[in-house]
Give the backbone structure.
Amino acid sequence: MAAALVALAWRDLHHGHARPAVDYAGAGLLTVSVVMLLLGLMTSGIFSWVLILAAIVLFILLLRVERRAADPILPLPLFRDRLFATATAHGVLSGWAMFGSVSFIPLFVQAVLGTTATEAGITITPMLLGWVTASIVGTRLLLIIGYRKLAIIGTACLAAGAFLMMQAGLETSRLSLMVFVALMGIGMGLSIPGFLIAVQTSVQRRQLGTATSTLQFSRSMGGTLGVSVMGAALSARLAASLAAARLDPGLVRQLLDPLPGSEVVIAEGARIAMADAIHAVFVIAFFAAALALVTVFFTPHKELTEQLPERDPSTVSAD
């Protein structure tokens, strides 16, 4: 049914019959380099450094290929536009802070606060609700206050929520965590759609799909890199804390599935180590959110003119 609706409603006319040039080399290099980078971040030892160095070499080769491609999968001239470059950097950093935090909040709630897996999952629900609600409200505010102020307000909310998450500890209530993640979700809901609409309005129509997908990709890559780096930090910090306290690493497994009568021992030992390790994760998330806020201030002050030749230009204020 969806395919039939698209086929019947599609009215875009092709203005040429030339066969498009597919950038197979760029797509292959981008895919392999990203996979190798992620594998390098997830593994350890010399092999991980080999993968990371190989990924860097492939990224450099990708830049050379994209400069010569007739229709590059990653158009480098787009990054000369300050709005697009700022939006991409914001996507990486905000995705790092948001998705990195969300990946470890259920672990914190279950292992440190001693709740069930269901309660841990419910804790991050306000983030989704806040994101969706803020997206609806933010798109209305965009025409009133402009995309730049909206992005600043949204990213400030994200950084504030990340800062509050950084203060979480053994005595933090689950309700407080729900408020913190809701604030982070509101921040993403206000800033992400604003940047997306601003970029879609400012680029040429033929680059609309590429610009949109690049922004989405930057946020996904930020989240993936954030989870990988923060997971490595969590493992290293937890191992060091357990070794310093002379605790059995097997106690961590009992945090998620405690045995009868072992709750007191676990609460006095492994929970403290886990709380300390996850705190390091939240610190990294806060710094990523703070850097995202800094990047927003580099957003240009300019009127956005919609690049649609068949329509009259319409403007959206930056402020």
Observations:
- DSSP finds twelve helices and two strands in the chain.
- Residues 259-265, 310-314 have pLDDT under 50 and may be disordered.
